[in-house]
Amino acid sequence: MKIIQVIIFCWVVLGSMGVYAQINYQSPIPENPKVEENTLSNGLTYYLQENAKPENQVQVRMIIRAGSILETEEQRGFAHFLEHMVFNGSKHFPDNSLIDYLQSIGVEFGADVNAYTGYDETVYMLPLPNAKKETLDSAFLFLGDILSGLTLSTEAIDNERNIILEEWRTTIGLNQRLKDQMYPLLYKDSRYLHRRPIGLMEVVTQKGNDEELRKFYRSWYRPELTSIVVVGDFEKEEMEKRIVATFGSMDNGDHAPEREYYTVPMHDGTLVKIIKDKEITSTSVKIINKFPHREEKTLGDLKRSVVNIIYTYLVNQRLTDLTQQKGAPYMYAQSYATSAAGKTDRYMSLATTKSDQIIEGTKGLMRELLRIKKYGFTQAELDRKKVILHNDFEQMAKEEGKQSSAQIMDAISNHVIYGEENTSIAFKKEFVQKVLKELTLEDVQELVNHYINLSEDNRVIIVTAPENTVTPSEEELLVALRSVADEQISPYVDLDVDEPLMHDLPKGGGIKNETFSAAMGITTIEFTNGASIALKPTDFKGDEIRFSSMREGGYSLASLENFDNASMASVLVSQGGLSKFNALQLERILSGKQVYVAPYINRYNEGVTGFSSNKDFETLLQLTHLIYTKPRKDVDKFEQFIENKKEYNRNALNSPDSYFTDEVNKVMMQNSPRTATLLTPEKLDKINFDEAFAFYQSRYSSAYGTRFFMVGNFNVDSVKPLLTKYLGSLPGKKIPSKYIDHGIRPPKGAHRYDFPRNMVDKSKMLMRFTGKYPESQKARIEMGLLSDILTIRLNQKLREEIGGVYSPYASSTILQRPYSCYRMDIYFTCAPANLDTLVRATLHEIDAMKKGISAENLDKVKKAWLKNRKGSLQTNGYWRRVLEDQWTRGEDEQDFEKFEQQIQDVRAEQLSKLARKYLNRKNHLEFVLSPQH
Predict the structure, then answer these.
(1) For residue range 48-61, what is the model confidence (pLDDT) as tens digits?
(2) Theoretical Cys-Cys bridge with 549: which of 460, 607, 613, 696, CB 3.0 to 4.6 Å?
């Protein structure tokens, strides 16, 4: 469901409309002219947009406007059940042959082809790795089968029941308990309260009710409730012919039931719920106001959305600014509008508070909202946010023509499902920028008055807290909120900083050497201060620069006594701002700029990571220079951070999953005092800011041995003077640039570790194989292919044959530091009673792979790897990782050029040998998160 927030990059569809000299706000929002929309005589609607990024690939999506809300009492869970059955036998794809076919062309089930069931819709997603005739033929046979050719045999239905039960099992626990208590308030007196998509397991698992499933299929899977969206590299006329040939002759049936749409009714008074649970990790309060949904059809509606973006920026900046102050009433707060099921909009205001300050935090949140309602925002605040939004849309316009088919698909789908606008970027940019010119504080205040009101009707207040928290009563909460309205609230005092980030600019350094790899298009510059940078210009994005740096060392260099200080050093120092500017002043200086950079210190390395637009690239370099030369020591921010961190960490291990992860980490580090475990409040009290700051300076006082990486839309010759000025001038004193291996290794042998923390009937298994492993690209490819083949086998055995799990998978990790090693992990969630059976089956599959690996399965994963590689090579993020990996692993362009051929060259016998050598049953660990005894 749509969150109407500051995430403006949800508006990412292509097209162009002219500039409106004068906006007629009664006019309808123009549709994107690049999207062709048509409706067949049977009511099926289709949307087509040609797009060649990536080349020769096609995204297909089928949207059926039928979900769990349409189920009868006897069918609760069958909308979702039917989604499963689409992949379990149809006219053209009997049994499980569809999944086999899709994998054979490089489509990964779950990662690529997928589906979901909502209250009001069911959506099938099918990304095709190529636009070959035979691929499109098969895809449309499948789509046609969804509407008119599902087998739905009793045997297949019964076989799927346990799989859905296991999917349900993955959802139970705290999240389900919270929904059980919150939904009666959020969906009071509505059908949505009793139609969660996962359904009732007593219905799902009850054999003999399969005819009800077929009845749901016949009733709702019909053309007039269906939309087909196709985006990609295809000929529009040819695609239209396919759609007409596949769906044109289908009918809706003689007795098709009417598709009714339901609402969530408004209610008198405020509904309050205090929820305490053993597994809740922090204390929070949510104030939710319900409103009838406002559709987005006219230019006036579109203007309201623009104002909403501005308002959301403004209110959250206010709430965040307060958290920067000592003695803030809450640790985190947020306020925004969102749409929900049942034609309802919600205005959400939430705050995370200290466990003993629930009343104070609630009043503090409401006080800031009422301050806004009473006095509004300042002109300076509005002007800053106008600049931000203007720049956002300027940058968005630069990306026109560079959107991937997947991004375009999401935009069209949101238009079809949720009624979101789907106009072009060009029109949107011009419209927004014209609206910004005439937008006033009164326009924003109109939205403030809509969202923030003192009415107790249609309001829900929910407090969630750890079990041992002393909480106020429902009446005490209401009284506290009422009391804020009687307070003498003073106007907001804005902070404005009108100073440059750097007063004294560096004179610049020198270049020692420069090389160029024509094969990879990478320029490497070595500076005289011992730092260097690898640059890869691209045109994947119109205006994006990805930036990072790395040097060996990290907190492995810290003494044991200073370990906790060092491990938190970069986080602690980052709280203080830079140079003479505190964090809030720095935020004001950077307001309106599209730039971010921050330091990090990991166990074995340190550096910076960030991004910017071309216009703000010099600012990125200035920030980087200050990170190394002028970190700011803010004791007040340190003390506030530690106090908040103590509150967050105090109950963090209430979460069984967090506890499990922490305990696994301890076992893998053999309880070394150098384990980066969750710090208790007692340990946080011992953090010494002077020592942490000193360790930070010991690593950032010099850039010697640091390699910077830069990928994006830039010209090397144009940026070289700036790089020399800001990076070449960094201090270059020789300091240690190698990490220390402290000899910490995982346990050897076969061990099972059981952690009984779940409050529900659910076990989570992590099976891990570890050991030394050769560090080479070829070795990494082989282990990665082996883990993907194992995933296929586990799904076939544990899911399809046994029906004991929902989504088992294997993954491999090759580590270079502190020594060359591998980790093969196998994950699944199951009923505790089935755990040992599933473990034995898993080990049996591994033993079978040692004897032989199917050439068919190997071919499937090879195609998926090659397809993913092709797509990844068109992204800046992937290329930045390539540069980083080449530097840390000592690889070069020859290794890069061999990558695809090394995938092709892998043989099944090699992987069987690999399994025999490294998946050793005598040396593996099993970690189980199990129910409490």
Answers:
(1) 999 999 999 999 99
(2) 607
